[in-house]
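Dear Dr. H.,

I hope your travels went smoothly. While you were away I took the liberty of generating a structure for the chain from your last submission, since the lab meeting agenda had it listed for discussion. I wanted you to have the full record in hand beforehand rather than looking at slides cold. The sequence, exactly as received, is reproduced here:
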Amino acid sequence: MKSKQTYAVVDIETTGTDPKVDRIIQFGCVLIQEGVIVSRFATDINPNQAISKQIQQLTGISNARVQKAPYFEDVALTIYNLLADTVFVAHNIYFDYPFLAQELTRCGTPKLKIPGIDTVELAQIFLPTEKSFRLGDLSERLGLIHDNPHQADSDAQVTAELLLLIERKMRQLPLITMEAIASLSQQTGMDTSAYIHQIYREMKKDIQPLSKQQHVVSGIALRNKTVPLFEEKLYGNPIFPQKKKAKEKLFANLIGYRAEQSRMMNLVYEHFTNEENKNLFIEAATGTGKTLGYLFPLSYLATPEDPVIISTVSIVLQNQLIEKDIPLANQICPKPLQATIIKSHRHYLDLQRFKATLKKPVQQKQYALYQMGVLVWLLETQTGDLDELQLINLNHAFWRDVAHRGVDFLSDQDPLYQEDFVRFLYKKVKQSNVLIVNHAFLAQETLREVPILPKSSYLILDEAHHLPDIAGKIANRQFNFISFKKQAAIYLEEDQLIDQVNQIFENESQEQRLLRIYAKALSDLVEEFSDLFYEINQLFPKNDQQALVSNLLTKAIFDQLSLDGELSIQKIEILLTEMQEIQYRLRRSIIEQLEKYTASQRIIFVSLLQFFERIEFLFESFDLYVNEWQPRWIKEYSVTPQGYGMFAINDLEASILPETTWYDRYQRILYTGGTLKFGNDKKYLPNKLGLTNVLFKTLPDPYDYEANARLYIPKEAIAISQANGTEFAAYIASVIQELAQQQDRSMLVLFTSHEILSSVYYRLHPQFLNAGRELLAQGISGSREKILKRFSQSKNSILLGADSFWEGVDLPGEALSILIVTRLPFENPKRPFVKARYDYLEEKGIQAFTHESLPKAALRLRQALGRLIRSDSDKGALIVLDRRLVTAKYGKRMLKALPKNLPMKEETLAEIVSELKEFLNK
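The corresponding predicted structure, in token form, is as follows:
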């Protein structure tokens, strides 16, 4: 590419995605020379075919509008000449370039042969922390003006501005980073690599000094990072303000005084200083200000030597604490709160392993894109936390190659040892008086040989009602035979893992001998498992369905296993014991001599040690599966349609806190959240957590539900117990349709069944498409994050959701004012695991429906209502299509779990629709 190149930034809108049958309806082009936009060209085009309603809705281009526009044949030569001698630029060039080239050829111009670069790939490399690389999302995040998304002239303009922004960022990077990126860029598409090389060559002519915020170690440019030291005034010892006046004086005008929040502050302070009771539960509704309610009193108590541990439910809430709540608290707290989020080491980048991947590049495009993105990210991150990259998952081989394995696997002779992110994290922890984790991390402390969290006087479990389920999920053990068989087969192949390790051990005859025995044992293990699963399959009916079928494996069924099955179990136990012994000896040998191995050899060892961990986990799980038959262990056996077996073990006592290894490490614990009790029953959650002697306080709900909320139950709602799935889906669809016709506002519809949700979606989708109204559905319209973003940005879309959409969806104000619950959210008692859990409770003399099923459903319904009213200005209606809420005996108990002053009305749908108009528009 030339240094004074002209870039033609192009966008086209089309009737569809197939260039053989679809046609262009709009062409937009922006020309860039020497970093400046010099001209623009745009035209509508008559496609000589109808534009579908979907495309009209997406682009805003109607059939009437293009009637007077020229045909593509009329402008083809003009466009071809415009593009001559330019570099073609597009956001997803793999659509625009071939489609336009095909159209030009169809209209008789010479074949389009100009070079092309893709701004999607450039954005993935040079803007690595962006959550989405869609043009609309990027323009919004980067502040680029995008007046008419999905119109070619506006898209081309924004793409041109994006290219110029990326180029400015490229020119600000250290030369050593650009050199590494240029080298890796051969894997990018079309001529994107040539463009990167051109910028790199120009930068070499005018080398800029390294920024003061950056330094280079082992050939990699990194952002400087320093451990902030914990500082507090040594003179004077601030006294916690119990009274209203003292608090108001301290809060000044920074935050308003709230009576319930003040009461919570006092309760928390008293609990952690005077109370003899270890466990305090505080139910504080959304809007109480509970986070500040516990942060403020803890600021008087927590020190780096005795920090407060705060465990919450999600990464989103962890980040909210760091970015919003703690900075706010520090404005009013006389003593500082210095916080660090702790995650397990696999969440962090291992610089030594990353450097090893650069030395041995993998010839794969996505791998190289990730490598280049990380090189740029290393100039921005101080934590090395892979969550900063906002990826949906880290399943790609690259992330497995560079994820941290813990400080024990680092070479302290490597220059990057001093820069290691996990070592930096541990240094920060020592200077922090607030340590933030999530419930999953806390629950995993029980599984760790050495705990990561320190002992402390203070533990806070925020959103504590999630802890029992999360503890259960963490304790769940699964073994998927087909995935294990595939992994073993790959590792045993020529030139694969076992061979690679054998080559590293070429001068170690003892290790090579152990490895040969291990490989033979692994091969035998796969065969024995295959035989065992064949025998277990005989204990259950044949799976004729095209889906996974789960069965409960009880002691009575297991005792019917054949003699061949028993022999296979014995052989598997012998093989696993032998493999464990070899693993111990090989691991000790590797760690003792770690320094003599190269970085790339250590990456191979890490893969081996990860497999060793899988075998250890299998050893423990298999022992539980075949030998432990106490009621607490629920065993499931699943068969794929192909006949492959899978087993799972659930521990029904995983949430019993006194049995965990971490519970005794904390002197006092605070449990808080918006829904901790069931109606007036304060023992529900403590009982689930195995706690008997607890203190329970409830703060009044601050919202005026009488003025701002309604609960409606349609009189003509279908009798759920008598209706089949088709009838129920048809009824739900008719209700949504009726409401949508009368209410031009957003609605959230909550389901307990994905099957019914899907059926309702496909019933409504054609009508909504024709009406130009967006209908979104979980599992159909994209990821949860994508759906929620589209929903919150729309004024009248309808979202069908299940599972996670019942809670944790923060859509205040106009984004949500109508919530439909299709069915009371009871668990399906026919699911093997649910049935087993209920049987377990009944055996202990606990009525499963009364003490487990009903409270769980009632709390879920209350959490659903929490999606509707989340601030003083919110207004909304909850419509429940399940008449059991008023007809069943248990309905009254469920209603008691809802706010006392929530008005409930039984009316016909027509009356509800009429009332809603008046209520919501008041």
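Two observations you may find useful: The chain has a mean pLDDT of 91. The two ends are 63 Å apart (CA to CA).

With kind regards,
E. W.
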